[in-house]
Amino acid sequence: MDEPVLLSMLEHYAFCPRQCALIHIEQVWDENLYTLKGTMTHERVDEVGSSQRDSLHVERALPLWNERLGLSGKADVVEFHAGVPYPVEYKSGRMREGVSESIQLCAQALCLEEMFDKAVPEGALYWIASRKRIAVTIDEALRTQTLEIIDEVRTMMQTRKVPSAIADKRCTHCSLLSSCMPKLPDQLKGYLDDDSTA
Ligand code: SF4
Q: Using CA positions, which residue lies closest to atom 3 of ligand 1?
């Protein structure tokens, strides 16, 4: 049986496959302003608990899994709208149009569908710095893209191969910029790695 694919891996991979590999294969983690903000955000929403306001039931830090797809992780918040699960993922930064967050949300929806045997047609991303909540439709296109990424992450974890750097504008705000060195040719990175262990 394969190791489960963590929901957080999907967001990392959708943002940059190399970032996902550096974190989950090479165990690289550079703490910086972005990661600290993310950690503080999740400390606030990671307290397990449930609440009821009028007809709205809310679960916090809910463990998630999908046995068929081999997924596991946790949802920041799951609201239950007339009994239908509605995942809400909290993000520390300002609102942006990235698809990686939607992929992670869709994977949460796939878990909730199997766990509660109910269709999950929508979820939301909440951007804390912008105080904006945007609804995300869990449509066929997003589901297909998410399933493809789950397969790609599983393959990458099995082969343990770290992809090459993308070296584009995504690198500017990447928490792993100093470890990744995206502008260095791969050959030179290999030489430096060998040299540092000599
Ligand atoms: S610095 Fe760029 S290439 Fe390297 S992990 Fe980050 S986004 Fe990917």
A: 165
Residue entry with tokens 């009821």: 52
184, β-bridge pairs: none
Q: Is residue 125 part of a domain?
A: yes
Instruction: Give a yes or no: residue 48 inside a domain.
Output: yes
Residues pairing with 175 in the sheet: none
Check: CB of residue 16 under 8 Å from CB of residue 174.
yes
Candidates 15, 18, 169, 178: which one to mutate for ligand 1, based on the most atoms within 8 Å of Cβ?
Answer: 18
Nearest CA to ligand 1 atom 7: 171
Q: What is the CATH number of the domain that holds 134?
A: 3.90.320.10
Question: Considering the entire predicted model, what is its pTM?
Answer: 0.86
- The reply to whether ligand 1 has any atom less than 6 angstroms from the CB of 154 is no
Instruction: Retrieve residue 15's tokens.
Output: 């943002």
pLDDT band at 129 (very low <50, low <70, confident <90, very high): confident
Of the candidates 57, 77, 64, the one whose C-alpha atom is nearest the C-alpha of residue 128 is: 77
For 15-19, 73-77, 96-100, 184-188, which range has the lowest pLDDT when averaged over its residues? 184-188
CB of 158 within 8 A of CB of 2?
yes
- Distance from C-alpha of 166 to C-alpha of 181, rounded to nearest angstrom: 11
**C-alpha of 50 from chain center:** 23
| Residue ranges making up the domain that contains 126 | 5-161
Domain count, the chain: 1
